[in-house]
Amino acid sequence: MPAVAEAKVYGQDILRDKNILDKSTGNPPLEIRIEEDNIVIVKESGEERVPVNSLRGKAILTRLETGISEFTEPIYV
Question: Most exposed among 15, 20, 64, 69, judged by the fewest C-beta atoms under 10 Å?
Fold first, then answer.
């Protein structure tokens, strides 16, 4: 049986540092999990799934994997 890859999880502190914010509250989401095909955004109001290969998914992944500069606009999810 093939091994199942663990989902990578980013907590509120990292999301705050990466300037990823909940569009409803203006605060960072509770967490973001990167799964095989989806990015799961856990917010106070529930979960939202974004396909990894969508433009939005790629923008979120790029932000999580790289640093930000002083000119970087927030990503609202």
Answer: 69
